[in-house]
Amino acid sequence: MRLSILYDCYYLPNNRICSRVCCIINANLTQYYKFKKHIKTCKAKNNVPSFCLLMNTLIVDNTSPFTRDILFHAVRFKKNFFCKLYSQVNFDRLDDYDSIILSGRKKINKETNMVNTRIIRYCHQTEIPLLGICYGAEMINLYFGGSLYRMDQVIQGFKKIIILKDCLYLPTNYSFSAYESHKYCISKISSQLECLASSPGNKFEIFKHLNKNIFGFQFHPEKSGKIGEYLINSFLNISR
């Protein structure tokens, strides 16, 4: 079966165009989805050649100005990904993805909240790994029963973060500098989530679900240099 590459274009909020690459079969999406279903069956039987192990990530753009940076890292790591504006997410296709990333957001929008909540619920009910960045992390905490508070001023700039418990291959007590840009913050973390990292100004910088591969980063790894790249790549290498 011949593999070919489909080049598509995705329009970012600032009207720039970012090319994305997805590996498909004979440049036909219908055949691609059939192929994915076949591969899942083969994987269940432990009978699938390594070149067929396609790892596809859905990147949900919640209108964050940093979405393009997430896409840059996905391309750099040679990952297969699809980027969709939150309003264009096809919920009937969520099971076609091996992981999902929820970006930050620029403005408050009820529709964004509803879409992200529905995605979080789906990942919670399945085994699809999920990463929420900034707003995405806040929505994960809210979904599981945590709470937020509005800060007096926007937190922006690099902050020192300390790992409290081994996280995505980073050891306990390891510290690094990460970029923050948010006005809301977690005030109470859900009992179903475990805090893995904190900073002097924010007690909950990284958290993970107790039983699922569901992660939240209050900071922006996509704007945090090499350590941010490492964290994104570590998440993208998680398979269900």
- Unreliable residue runs: 1-28, 48-53
Query: What is the number of domains?
Result: 2
Which class of the largest domain in CATH terms? Alpha Beta
What is the CATH homology-level superfamily of the largest domain?
Class I glutamine amidotransferase (GATase) domain
Largest sheet: 9 strands, mixed
| SSE topology string | EEHEHEEHEHEEEEEH
Helix content range: 25-40%
Strand content: 35-45%
Nearest-integer average pLDDT: 81
CATH topology of the largest domain: Rossmann fold
Strand order of the largest sheet: 4-3-5-6-11-10-9-7-8
Assigned CATH architecture of the largest domain = 3-Layer(aba) Sandwich
Radius of gyration: 18 Å
Number of helical segments with 4 or more residues: 5
Would you give an account of this structure?
The structure is a single chain. The protein is an alpha/beta fold and 240 residues long. The chain has two domains: 1-47, no CATH class; 55-236, 3-Layer(aba) Sandwich (Rossmann fold). 26% of the residues lie in helices and 38% in strands. The strands form two sheets. It has a nine-stranded mixed sheet with strand order 4-3-5-6-11-10-9-7-8, sandwiched between helices. α3 (110-125) links the parallel β5 and β6. The protein starts with a strand and ends with a helix.
